[in-house]
Design brief:
With about 70 residues, the protein is mostly helical. Helices cover about 45% and strands about 0% of the residues. It has a domain of about 25 residues. The longest helix has 11 residues. The chain starts with a helix and ends in a 14-residue tail after the last helix.
């Protein structure tokens, strides 16, 4: 729903999530067909606004609901 609201797709949001984290220096993406390279490049070059990421953060469950809590 969030991706639709911001006129993007989940694949782009997932890729941009990894690219925006300064701890991650590389993202490896598998492609099953050469025809998909254009869409991947478009996803790489998409800049999602800060407001998108703020809304995404609101969707993250509380750490107590995580399978591997940060503070057990």
């Amino acid at each position: 729903d969030l991706c639709r609201e911001w006129d993007t797709d989940l694949a782009t949001a997932a890729l941009q999530f990894s690219l925006r984290d300064p701890r991650i220096h590389m993202s490896v993406v598998g492609i099953s067909k050469p025809e998909r390279i254009g869409a991947l490049l478009a996803s790489v070059n998409t800049e999602l606004p800060v407001e998108f990421w703020s809304a995404a953060e609101e969707l993250v469950p509380e750490p107590s609901n995580w399978l591997d809590p940060v503070n057990p």
